[in-house]
């Protein structure tokens, strides 16, 4: 498979102090890392594309580690995660699906074996397209306080023959989360759900 060609990267971190109520004792950090890469399948239909997932694995791991560093450097501080991809207009949605394994497993590895499935979304879009990347707790998908999303995009990306691959991590629940359900302190850790 072709070597992964990165045109640019973006790392962004936001700190949320409150959502109208009292400021949180510790602000929530939400961070995203985006790599804009050449889409080797742009402009044509290719039947066998799965091998490119292996080529993306080193990029996924490097991105996961860099995002953890941007969020303070402590993998134990990360409580939520998600991933996504925006495929340029000369590509197809299935090209974005190539990011599932390299992005998801990289975050799980970098976080020390997180158990929950990494939520994901993808779409085809042009330069400036934005993607709402879903987030859940890293060890139990049913922890409602950590259901979240982060809007991510880059003004000039992706170009028609590119893809923007994205990882998102958070350091805790939504600020002022109060809709009940399974609490993070109640996670059993048996199946990645509860």
Give a verbal description of the structure:
- This is Amino acid synthesis family protein.
- With 194 residues, this protein is α+β, with helices and mostly antiparallel strands.
- The chain contains three helices and seven strands; from the N terminus they run E-E-H-E-H-H-E-E-E-E.
- The chain has a domain of 133 residues: 2-Layer Sandwich (60s Ribosomal Protein L30, Chain: A), CATH 3.30.1330.110.
- The chain is 18% helix and 29% strand.
- Strands 1, 2, 3, 4, 5, 6 and 7 form a seven-stranded mixed beta sheet that branches.
- Helix 1 packs across helix 3.
- The longest helix has 19 residues.
Whole-number radius of gyration?
17 Å
Number of helices: 3
The counted number of beta strands is 7
Mean pLDDT across all amino acids: 95
User: pLDDT below 50 for ≥5 consecutive residues: which ranges?
Assistant: none
Largest sheet: 7 strands, mixed
Quote the distance from N terminus to C terminus: 38 Å
Q: Order of SSEs, N→C? A: EEHEHHEEEE
CATH homology superfamily of the domain at 1-17 and 26-42 and 55-144 and 164-172: BB2672
**What is the 3D shape?**
globular
CATH architecture of the domain at 1-17 and 26-42 and 55-144 and 164-172: 2-Layer Sandwich
Helix content: 10-25%
CATH class of the domain at 1-17 and 26-42 and 55-144 and 164-172: Alpha Beta
Main structural class: alpha+beta
CATH topology of the domain at 1-17 and 26-42 and 55-144 and 164-172: 60s Ribosomal Protein L30, Chain: A
Portion in beta strands: 25-35%
Pfam family, one: AA_synth
InterPro entries: AA_synth_put, BB2672
Protein name: Amino acid synthesis family protein
Organism: Chelatococcus composti
């Amino acid at each position: 498979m072709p070597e992964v060609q990165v045109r640019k990267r973006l790392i962004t971190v936001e700190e949320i102090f409150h959502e109208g109520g009292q400021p949180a004792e510790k602000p929530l950090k939400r961070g995203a890392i985006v790599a804009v890469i050449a889409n080797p399948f742009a402009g044509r239909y290719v039947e066998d594309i799965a091998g490119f997932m292996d080529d993306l694995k080193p990029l996924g791991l490097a991105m996961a580690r860099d995002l953890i560093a941007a969020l303070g450097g402590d993998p134990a501080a990360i409580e939520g995660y998600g991933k996504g991809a925006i495929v340029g207009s000369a590509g197809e949605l299935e090209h974005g699906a190539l990011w599932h394994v390299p992005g998801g497993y990289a975050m799980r590895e970098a976080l020390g074996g997180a158990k929950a499935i990494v939520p994901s979304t993808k779409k085809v879009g042009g330069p400036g397209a934005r993607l709402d990347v879903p987030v859940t707790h890293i060890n139990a998908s049913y922890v409602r306080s950590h259901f979240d999303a982060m809007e991510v995009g880059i003004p000039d990306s992706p170009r028609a023959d590119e893809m923007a691959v994205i990882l998102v991590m958070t350091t805790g629940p939504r600020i002022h989360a109060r809709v009940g359900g399974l609490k993070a302190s109640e996670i059993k850790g048996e199946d990645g759900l509860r």
